[in-house]
Design brief:
Largest sheet: 6 strands, antiparallel, barrel
Strand order of the largest sheet: 3-12-15-14-13-16
Number of strands: 21
Helix content: 25-40%
Order of helices and strands: HEHEEEEEEHHHEEEEEEEEEEEEEEH
Strand content: 35-45%
Oligomer: single chain
Structural class: alpha+beta
Radius of gyration: 38 Å
CATH class of one domain: Mainly Beta
Distance between the termini: 34 Å
CATH architecture of one domain: Beta Barrel
CATH topology of one domain: conserved putative lor/sdh protein from methanococcus maripaludis s2 fold
Shape: rod-shaped
Length: about 375
């Protein structure tokens, strides 16, 4: 019984000593053990939890390109993943219906020219008193009608995909052309090609899906029980990445299948390495009024369920107990009796722990 009591007292005494231990080492011993030290890095963010997310494009940054007229696909020079500039050629179709629109435009344009001549003639006759005012008014009404039809025919060509210079050339040359060209309305990247060469397309058949990837969002599936801990503006970081985002939306409905709520985060700055539709894992971070410190995981020594840092001082290293509040990749967030000006061992903590537990106060 006395041996058992003695053992318990010895264990308690060693534990008390270890919590307030000083490892005495010279600079030469530190160099021999290849122990490296570094300054503490303050952090005012507390990691909350990890959640799955998907990379998406804002709806207003994405466009679906479709055929404005039925036709046969003759050219598809752009492939999935290609970057395109605004106005760049995406496709060419052979469209007989475009020829019909061109013919209607030329007819309406000719009728307008004849109407303009009649208007000019009748205006002169009316001013000379050769015709009645009613005749002059009828001529004006007829000219207005012809002008409206010509404008309508021109607008149909614009909707069909013809540019203003192409329409002007058609009016001058009267040369019909069944080639319908499709151009990109934005600068972006091709996400999908929805047509194949040689296919016969109906009007409004989809050709390409293009997106401006200058801004990307994260759609995060947050467990509903964790939603109350989140706030608009909280930081989000991708696992194993330095890409950061900020929460801008917390959804108002719960997914019936997995009982999660959709949260949206806008990625800050560049998002190189991310792909639209990519599934990622993210960590939610929240600002805290209490100062914590980010330290490498290699700087933390575990002993009997407690975490410790080795703080450099004149005699060697002071063993300081800390609390670990979260981890992110190769770093941990800790707090403890630290001012922030300390230098801690970031390499060689294993050797220091062995010295601490094996030799007590060290040499």
């Amino acid at each position: 019984m006395n041996k058992i009591l003695f053992g318990l007292l010895l264990t308690q005494t060693f534990g008390a000593f270890a919590l307030d231990s000083q490892i005495r080492m010279s600079q030469e011993q530190i160099d021999n053990l290849d122990i490296k030290v570094a300054a503490l890095s303050a952090s005012h963010q507390v990691p909350l939890f990890f959640a799955p997310a998907k990379v998406v494009v804002p709806a207003d940054k994405e466009v679906l390109i479709s055929s404005s007229q039925p036709g046969l696909v003759a050219q598809l020079p752009i492939n999935i993943g290609d970057r395109v500039a605004k106005g760049q050629l995406l496709a060419q179709l052979n469209s007989p219906s475009l020829v019909g629109l061109q013919q209607a435009f030329l007819t309406a344009n000719n009728d307008l020219n004849l109407s303009s001549l009649e208007q000019h003639r009748d205006q002169k006759l009316w001013q000379e008193g050769a015709i009645a005012e009613r005749r002059w008014q009828e001529t004006q009404m007829m000219h207005g009608s012809k002008s409206a039809k010509a404008d309508e025919a021109r607008q149909l060509l614009v909707l069909a995909g013809m540019s203003a210079p192409e329409i002007k050339q058609l009016a001058q040359t009267h040369k019909l052309d069944d080639r319908l060209t499709v151009h990109s309305p934005i600068n972006g990247v091709v996400l999908e090609r929805l047509a194949t060469l040689g296919a016969r397309l109906d009007i409004q058949a989809p050709l390409y899906r293009i997106a401006d990837l200058s801004e990307l969002w994260l759609e995060i599936n947050v467990p509903q029980e964790r939603l109350n801990s989140l706030h608009i503006g909280d930081q989000v970081r991708l696992e194993n990445s330095d890409i950061a985002a900020k929460l801008t939306l917390l959804g108002q409905s719960v997914n019936r299948d997995n009982q999660t709520v959709l949260a949206r985060a806008v990625i800050d700055g560049k998002s190189s390495g991310l792909r639209v539709g990519q599934n990622v894992n993210v960590q939610i971070l929240q600002n805290s009024t209490q100062t914590s410190f980010k330290v490498p995981n290699t700087a933390i020594a575990q002993n009997d369920g407690h975490a410790y840092l080795f703080v450099r001082n004149q005699e060697g290293f002071a063993v300081t107990e800390v609390s670990v509040s979260g981890k992110q990749d190769a770093e941990s967030l800790i707090s403890g009796p630290l001012s922030g000006n300390e230098q801690i061992a970031v390499k060689g903590a294993v050797a220091l722990k062995a010295n601490w537990l094996g030799l007590g106060g060290g040499e």
